[in-house]
Amino acid sequence: MSPSGVVKIFGISRVRWFGSLIAAALCGLSVLTAAAAPAESAASAPAERDMAQWIERMHSAPCSRAYAGTFVVLSANGAMSSSRIWHACDGQQQLERVESLSGTPRTVYRRNDEVRTFLPQVRVVRSDRRDASGLFPRVPVVSGTSIAQFYTPRLLGQERVAGFMSDVVAFQPADTLRFGYRLWSERETGMVVKLQTLAADGRVLEQAAFSELDLNAPVKVDQLSRLMDATSGYKVVATSVVKTTAKAEGWTLRQPVAGFVPVSCHRRAVSDAPDAPSVLQCLYSDGLASVSLFVEPFDPQRHPAQPQVSSIGATQLLAQRGPSDMWLTAVGEVPLQTLRLFVGQLERMR
Predict the structure, then answer these.
(1) pLDDT 10s digits, 133-154
(2) List of E strands, 114-238
(3) Among residues 291, 9, 311, 289, which one has the least CA distance to residue 150?
(4) Does the bond joining 137 to the residue before it have cis omega, within 30 degrees of 0?
């Protein structure tokens, strides 16, 4: 699988934009207000929470109220993008509409794990199923992790983001297999309104933030659902996706990578052609960071002889020939050495 093919399936493509908020952050002009906010009373002082409490707060916040806003992503290499987001939840369903404001025009709807991408220029709707972790903030709900062993939270203070006072907390990794994070959690709802992914030396690899946000937006689940189902005039293309397991496909990790547990595994067609080949995608997560392993037959016409390494912001990619004449691609927002561990530990059972 080529890097562009992985991007297509994995959904790495990000919206890019440059706003005053991000510019201020990059120039080091953003100053935490813990000590510099005399208006803050003792009663509103930031609350200390353990790792589990922070994660629970992040998971539950998106369903606390409907919202709409403009979302910005900026990578360390200067790539920027932006999109407009509408989000609603009724306890049973999470609906989200994401309209790209840069690059190729497209609108993505998510209804739990169901995804439809409207491409108005070619009048095509691509239908797929993805893990609900694709919803912003992309914090997967993962059972079986020991996240407190691998990250230590440290409350840094408070800061206003998109007009909302937020607690600023750093998640310091316990080893070199994962990046660190700095996040801004809106004080009332707990919603993550800004997130930075940090290298071991403290550099910001990628940051995402709302430049403007309405936490009382009149967004309804049924309203977004009707828009998602309004495919008249479009050609609907459904990608073949079959749920499976690594074991059922004859693959296993000789040794688990510390902190990461299996989340899901699917076999996906690489295109909508009737005879399109498929690729196996298995997702692993430590509760914050995720790694996808793609496995497909080696094809000398499409795959190079030498290993391939690339990065997009905090997302790293490693692709190389593997056992049983297969082509392995590992993608994740983790250091490259973590991807090497995954690829090195993957073995054929039969």
Answers:
(1) 444 555 556 666 788 899 999 9
(2) 114-119, 124-129, 151-161, 164-173, 180-186, 192-198, 204-214, 235-238
(3) 289
(4) yes
